[in-house]
Write a structure and sequence with these properties.
Blueprint (H helix, E strand, L loop, with lengths): L13 E4 L7 H7 L5 E4 L2 H5 L2 H11 L5 E3 L8 H13 L4 E6 L1 H16 L21 E5 L11 E6 L4 E6 L8 E4 L9 H20 L5 H23 L4 H16 L8 H9 L7 H16 L4 H10 L9 H18 L15 H10 L12 H13 L3
Parallel strand pairs: 1-8, 2-3, 2-4, 4-5, 5-8
Antiparallel strand pairs: 6-7
């Protein structure tokens, strides 16, 4: 066997997790020596009372802070640059990201600009790495269980002018300094958001486990993430106040995020990330609809890994050939997508007339490179047609 490529792994983020973990925020702020952190979140989080859950203890501790609630889904570059200006003008010295992946990605991206200058458009991932300085002390507090952005070394930002999303990161310098994972913040999360974010966590795990960049440590985190999704996503979807299910799904999202490392995923994320620049739709819904078709396409390239995915998802593969066991993984994800009532691509606004362009931008997305089975523009056209053909 040829020598395997040299891989590396960095996790710069300290993790504190469990019910009530957010109560440690004032101490964490003090430990990091922050005098005036900027809380980055969105109005939905504020209306839900989650913002007050963290500002109340900060007020009680006499801690100064600034609140920035301008985050929107699929955050645009201009929003990040505006946040960085506010950060500098208000003389902040750290960041607290509170919310789903958009809020956490925005906080990390603001940190990149605050530390390195310029515009976030200057830090689109490329070689050589454009990020030269670590982001300011940053605390990530997720309120959903999906992106794992609290531990990933990436932020995904939208460029509306070019109608594309782009990656910033691939370096430990963008990683949050601390993540507080408190499942109590996800209690009562609506079923649709639970489903979409949970499927995103599954997609991270599946794609990172099967991609060409896989390595033993990321395989381990990805497999456990899949097992937690298989055991607990249905429970969290059906019973939003089940604290055990919420905790295990939060762990699944975190583990799925860890499985990224400094590299990328595969065709499902290449498709959903690029298409997210065309239609402003929830990333989790879109990725969920694309995951099973991409698995179906990739299965022949890594049947042993897909057989292990089936096992992780709770499928009975006893006595089956590797190929048949691998097929059960694909069938399980198709079934899960329907059981969780994920919207169809048509429901999300996509049409067959858009397929040539969607295939073109997916092929150009850098995550195509890591896909376990080679794919070109024609292959992406077939995948989009397959995904659009699926009906509940």
């Amino acid at each position: 066997m040829a020598n395997p490529p040299i891989r590396g792994y960095s996790l710069p983020t300290i993790l504190r997790h469990g019910p009530g973990a957010v109560a440690a925020l004032p101490d964490a702020v003090a430990e990091l020596g922050l005098r005036r952190p900027m809380i980055v979140t969105d109005t939905g989080v504020a209306r839900a009372g989650l913002l007050e859950r963290i500002t109340r203890p900060l007020d009680a501790a006499g801690q100064a802070f600034l609140v920035f609630t301008e985050v929107v889904p699929n955050p645009p570059a201009a929003l990040v640059d505006r946040g960085a200006r506010v950060y500098r003008d208000e003389q902040c010295d750290g960041l607290i990201g509170l919310g789903g992946g958009s809020s956490l990605d925005t906080a990390k991206a603001i940190g990149v600009v605050a530390a390195n200058g310029g515009s976030i458009l200057d830090y689109r991932w490329a070689a050589p790495q454009p990020i030269r300085r670590r982001i300011p002390p940053t605390i990530a507090i997720p309120t959903t269980a999906g992106t794992g952005s609290e531990v990933t070394l990436w932020a995904v930002i939208t460029d509306p002018e070019r109608q594309v999303k782009f990656n910033v990161g691939g370096t430990a310098d963008i990683g949050p300094w601390l993540a507080l994972l408190d499942p109590e913040l996800t209690l009562g999360l609506p079923p649709r958001i639970t489903a979409a974010t949970g499927m995103d966590a599954l997609a991270h795990a599946v794609e990172c486990y099967t991609c060409d960049y896989a390595q033993p440590l990321t395989d381990a985190t990805a497999l456990l993430a899949m097992e937690y999704v298989g055991q607990y996503l249905h429970v969290a979807f059906a019973s939003g106040n089940d604290i055990e299910a919420r905790y295990k799904m939060m762990m699944a999202a975190m583990l799925g995020g860890m499985s990224y490392g400094t590299e990328s995923a595969g065709a499902a994320h290449a498709m959903s990330q690029s298409a997210g620049g065309i239609h402003d739709v929830p990333h989790g819904d879109l990725t969920a609809r694309l995951l099973a078709p991409v698995m179906e396409y990739n299965c022949p390239a890594a049947p042993h890994k897909f057989a292990r995915i089936a096992q992780a998802l709770g499928e009975d593969i006893h006595g089956l050939t590797v190929e048949r066991a691998a097929e059960k993984a694909v069938a399980a994800v198709y079934r899960l997508t329907e059981e969780l009532r994920i919207p169809t691509l048509q429901d999300l606004g996509f049409t067959e007339e858009e397929i040539p362009h969607l295939a073109k931008i997916a092929e150009e997305d850098p995550q195509t490179i890591g896909n376990p089975r080679p794919i070109d523009r024609q292959g992406y056209e077939k995948l989009w047609r397959r995904a659009m053909s699926v009906r509940p």
